[in-house]
Amino acid sequence: MSASTADLPTSTPAATAASQYDAIVRSGYEHGFVTEIESDTLPPGLDEGVIRAISARKGEPAFMTDWRLAAYRKWLQMPTPAWASVHHPPIDYQAISYFSAPKKKDGPKSLDEVDPVLLETYRKLGIPIEEQKALAGVAVDAVFDSVSVATTFREKLAEVGVIFCSISEALQEHPELVRQYLGSVVPATDNYYAGLNSAVFTDGTFVYVPKHTRCPMELSTYFRINTANTGQFERTLIIAEEGSYVSYLEGCTAPQRDENQLHAAVVELIALEGAEIKYSTVQNWYPGDEHGRGGIYNFVTKRGDCRGARSKISWTQVETGSAITWKYPSCILRGDDSVGEFYSVAVTKGRQQADTGTKMIHLGKNTRSTIVSKGISAQHGQQSYRGLVRIAAKAEGARNHTQCDSLLIGDKCAANTFPYIEVKNPTAKMEHEATTSKISDDQLFYCRSRGLAEEDAVSMIVNGFCKEVFNELPMEFAVEAQKLLSISLEGAVG
Amino acid sequence: MTPGKGAQGQGSPAALFQDWLPAAGRSTGQSLPWLAAQRVQARARVRELGVPSPKSEGWRYSSLSPLLEQGFRAVGEASGEAGSALDPGALQTLLIPELRSHRVVLVNGRFDAALSALGTLPRGVRIGGLRDSLARDPDALEGLLTSVAGDGSHVFTAINTASLDDGVVLLMERGALLEEPLEVIHVALPASADARGHELAPPVAHPRLLFSLGDGAQAEIIERYVGPGGGPSCTNAVVEIALGRGALLRHRRIQDEHADGFHLSGVYLSQGADSRYEGINIGLGGRWARTDLVMRFTGEHAECDLRGLYLAGDRQLLDYHLDVHHGLPHCASRENFKGILFGKGRAVFDGLVYVAPDAQKTDAAMSNRNLILSPNAEVDTKPQLEIYADDVKCSHGTTVGQIEPEMLFYLRSRGISAGLARRMLCLGFAGEIIDGLGPAALREHVTEQVGARLEQAPL
Predict the structure, then answer these.
(1) Is A371 domain-assigned?
(2) How far apart (Å, rounded) are the C-alpha atoms in residues B337 and B382?
């Protein structure tokens, strides 16, 4: 800074601004409301009987019941994982109700039959179910608690042969596909929460894109957690056949609660030869109050398998919610010349904790992966990037570039980086870079000297910091993501 | 180990570690209560920790089984009589002729006065064997010895403390200056037959080194780990370093054990305000080597510069663990490690930079770059940052790759053979680290060793 500016009372406006921003930071959770509708809920508790009951209620084929029970028996023998940099009281799995279906009148056949209270909830959330037919390009399979109640654009998708339905429906209508692929990327024995999910998952999304088909619209599901004490165990399975393309959007908000809600989803993606799957997430679940009470525990297993040559799987995530986020969207690059991508923006503030990252397992020749992870930590937020890049002995010419940057706002937060890099092939090219810094005074001063308010300057800098990731998001999500960021962050900087 | 778990059985992990420890009550300084207490505590810790599980984070990539299979026994226990002899002629082959230094020779961890050549020491500098120092002036060591390493980062440090018996001590008073470097040569000898001609178990030595530099003191220390070979040997060294305010230490560590050498070393550093530590770790030899560098700042504005180079070829595992803890504001650290891997060589780099909540204005940069030259080599690298303060500048970078074909082509087009071109490129890559080595005689020696290793390498 030059001498002429040294006299400016730079600290005072910053201090006032800080208190204003504090108010914004402490602002309540925008989407906190509870819709009271009757739920068909199983009593809390978990044993083989509960699993059989879930399976029976959903009218599943016998192989599915056996699969669930096998997963449950394996799960019982697994230890609770303790390696992540997150802290929470032990979870009582017997206190969770494992099934909650919105009460239906013989099942809705069209939107008119859907409970109007539900539709009202969607309206509040901004999911334009009624305007959907007019809304170009987005089909929404809205999941309200655990059972899909509204699915649209099915016919339009069916014309090109794309199957887009809830996984329960898929089990009824396409059991052979589910049986072939379910658990083939994330086996029930993969990890503790995947095991639990395999035993008790109640619903989720199923997508099947046939050969040489480009899915004509972005597919989207809004998850919504509603009934108190109901764990959500979603199961998503996306299969992209040879030469096909699909883009899938996932976004979520949840009402305010006092008790922690466990969310242990499993997402499996399968890309066959030349197929491409783009999976985008905006996650804004209830993060808990300023003391960290309440809030969602988000323990998710997401993995994509690039099975065929020249296939591509791309994960993009914007994680601003949840008390604890624990997820590592991964790619197994099995096919030669396959490509894996991971773009992530994670924000932790208040008492939020996030342990997130990715795994890129290079098995095929000339496989490429890109990892861009941007972490922003404010207040007491705790954040870790944990990633693995493994280049197997046979992965000739594999290429990886990893960049993890952390932005720290305030002196009580934390940002950790735990990259694991295992290279067994000399032709591999692997680069990893990580930086940690705060918004520099120089950058702020530069913007402010050009007449930008501090708030706008910070917003600009943070958006610039995250730009690489936002560029990967589909249009609709990019807007939402920027809005989420501005709510979460602008206020936290002083 | 707790009884009733088959721990008494021969070959059980606990029994293996019992052999690593000398019989209680036979070590130096039994009359010193503070030291005795440390030994007892360390013994308890060995029992408590046991053999690290292959699943534990710190041993994830380096299997202990090759080490444990050897059936090492503590020196003195194994050979009945301490100090397998090294004749002065054999020592000559292990020396660097042009290197002028205050020389200390440890043979299997024992200070060998006859082979050492301390020369004239400047005022305020004391160098000696640990055993002698404990016998002559134990008070000078109280509060220093074992206090820097503490419990240590793993069981092998506890084993060293429990076995603490001999080693080297350097004590420098305020403002003292050591002009010629202190050279510590660790010679690892394999097992010899006993009087009746029975083959003895291979020995493990536990040398303990203590370097204490008073305020403003300056020194250069060269540690070399060597051995004539001829059978397995193991060195489990612990180095404790305490730097006073404004002290400066240049520390060069050359691990050049023989092909059957097993090597464990833990370097524990405590840095006072305004002090500077420059450490260069060269890993060339050994079959299985693990080095832990544990850095702590006890005053502000201290700087720590850690550099390393490792060459891992066939049948070799070289493992480096860095633990740099920024607990105070305004300190800076640099970590720059480079590796060259060939044959079936394996290397592990696990570096952690931790910045505590109040350590504002910390400046830390970690870098680990690796060249893999053959299809069967493997490198596992894990550079980690844990940051709990916001006004910091921290970064890390890692790369793994091979020699660029364009560079090779450039050299070959100028009539240089492929093998020589590769060696030139590797030496260029290693140069960044080697060039930092002083004195010139040491630098040339290491450059030669690296060149020779590369020449043997199947490039």
Answers:
(1) no
(2) 12
